[in-house]
Structure of Acetyltransferase:
Amino acid sequence: MKTLNGKYIKLRALEPEDLEFVLEIENNESIWYLSNTQTPFSRFVIKQYLENAHKDIFEVKQLRLMICDINETSLGLIDIFDFDFKNKRAGVGIVIKDAKNRGKGFGDEALQLLVNYSFTHLGLHQLYCNISEDNQASIQLFSKIGFKKVGLKKDWNFNNGTFNNEYLFQLIKQ
């Protein structure tokens, strides 16, 4: 897969030139709670990651794609993780890097493209995501695409000195 094209955005494979963009996202401490990151990543580690990003999802059990607008401007990242071919399921995560690009439908379109790809090309039966109880933007995004809230994990994540609840959302292929 080279690119998945939508009306306003496209999803493409990561390239070595994406190093600074990925490094900025991974080292943005204000969003570490989204991915349970504890420490910053070095430029060397991200470079190694990008050098191996071409590996097959069936081998590495994950896939990260760049979200770009139609002018090739990088907007964010969308991930498939915990790819489980036997049980035909995987987790999904998404981040739009700059606040100025949020709420414009880029995340909606990117998530819909990834859902379609997961069900049609990867043969998955379901996708899931974990969303902090106070992350209304993500709850709205995933709900809009058809994900259903199926559970609440009490005191699941410890951030900024307090425990926070996390919802489990699922989308099962119809």
Summary: The longest helix spans residues 106-120. The first strand starts at residue 3 and ends at 5.
